[in-house]
Amino acid sequence: MPSDQLAELGKTEVTVRGPASGKDLGVLLYRPDASTVLAYSNICSHQGCAVGTETPEANFYCACHASRYDYKDGSVLAGPAPKGLTRYAASIKGQDIVVYPPLDA
């Protein structure tokens, strides 16, 4: 995605293609500053529901059972999720945000 579409301190949801499966993967992005972007799987560790960015608070939220995750590191803020979100490598290359999902995804 173009980096100018995600402002500093912004968060959004995107879809990337898994390198092995060719399937679409949901990814949550957070941009803490102009040169950094953090990427996480959008799959909740509780029961596999999709985690989103549309929340009344500044965190990632699973609407299925109200798990909340910290957008700064993917850790669980409120359960029942047993563990944090899986983090993906991501970078800003030129004018683009690039996400590197696991090779087996």
From TrEMBL:
Q: Where is the Rieske domain?
A: 24-99
Identify the CDD domains for this entry: Rieske (cd03467)
Highest taxon in the source lineage:
Bacteria
Keyword presence, Metal-binding: yes
Q: Which Pfam families match?
A: Rieske
The answer, when asked if Kinase is one of the entry's keywords, is no
Cofactor(s) the record lists: [2Fe-2S] cluster
The record's listing under InterPro entries reads: Rieske_2Fe-2S, Rieske_2Fe-2S_sf, Rieske_Fe-S_prot, Rieske_Fe-S_prot_C
Q: Which keywords annotate this record?
A: 2Fe-2S, Disulfide bond, Iron, Iron-sulfur, Metal-binding
Q: Which PANTHER family match?
A: CYTOCHROME B-C1 COMPLEX SUBUNIT RIESKE, MITOCHONDRIAL (PTHR10134)
Relate the protein's function as given in its record: Iron-sulfur subunit of the cytochrome bc1 complex, an essential component of the respiratory electron transport chain required for ATP synthesis. The bc1 complex catalyzes the oxidation of menaquinol and the reduction of cytochrome c in the respiratory chain. The bc1 complex operates through a Q-cycle mechanism that couples electron transfer to generation of the proton gradient that drives ATP synthesis.
This protein is called what?
Answer: Cytochrome bc1 complex Rieske iron-sulfur subunit
